[in-house]
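Worked example 2:
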Amino acid sequence: MEDYIYRQFCSFLGEDKVKREEPMGKHTTFRIGGPAGYFLCPDTPEALKKIVEFCNTEEIPWFILGNGSNLLVSDRGYRGAVIQLHRNFQKTELEKDVIRAQAGALLSAVAAAALKAGLTGMEFASGIPGTLGGAVVMNAGAYGGEIRDILTETLLMDREGRIFSLPGEQLEMGYRTSLVKQKGWVVLEAKLKLQPGDPAQIRSRMEELKRQRCEKQPLEYPSAGSTFKRPEGYFAGKLIMDAGLRGFTVGGAQVSEKHCGFVINRGNASAEDVRSLIFQVQDRVYRQFGVKLEPEVRFLGEFEDTEEKSVVSRG
């Protein structure tokens, strides 16, 4: 059966775009994760549609991967198909003051294209390590800007493989959420409406934000960025720091001493180390301050049953 599945995927994509038992630590910014049963790299919406329809017919679990920048993959891996929309899915085009880009385009690359065209509005996203597709799903934001502020239209695929477009205002985008996330849709491409600006000022703003990130964030270690969503009325990093958890360690995972909102991989962390640390941070903060921290990081694959360790998960 596995050979049949492999041959089918190769018929859709070619052998060079299909891998078996691919270590996911190579494809996440945490640098953690066991193997994916199949690792697929389509380069067209039509190829992706064939994969999705085949997986649905054969009851093969599938997951869409961008740059892996907010993802923790189980040490056991993922027994299904990981479909990467990144390296072969990042075409970017300029149409006057609108940038149209495929889902796999890095936000930093889209921001660089905006700078080159003298367009302002993407500066806030220039240092976010994810892809445009992931940014739409999560309504990514930083330094006062969000994707929904500039998103005009999105080309999408539903879980059955149907392709359709929706304007940005119909995506119900909120803080780290959207209708795309709620429905499990796949982003294929997006259009971003920007404004003419002074390239020198745009570049200066990007460099200033880069400087702030380097000063405040532990960019020297593998991580998934901010580990927790911002609880209403609080800052996750400050709650964690006030709970006495700066530098708190489980195995190779650690609450960053530089920014307590980041969980980092000190070099040899397992996925279970990270997940256990996240649960313990949630518990400590909840016990001390009564605030439930919700992970911004997504979990993929089978993990040990650690739910009983968290009062938050029971509450």
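Residues 271-289 form the longest helix (19 residues). DSSP finds nine helices and 19 strands in the chain.
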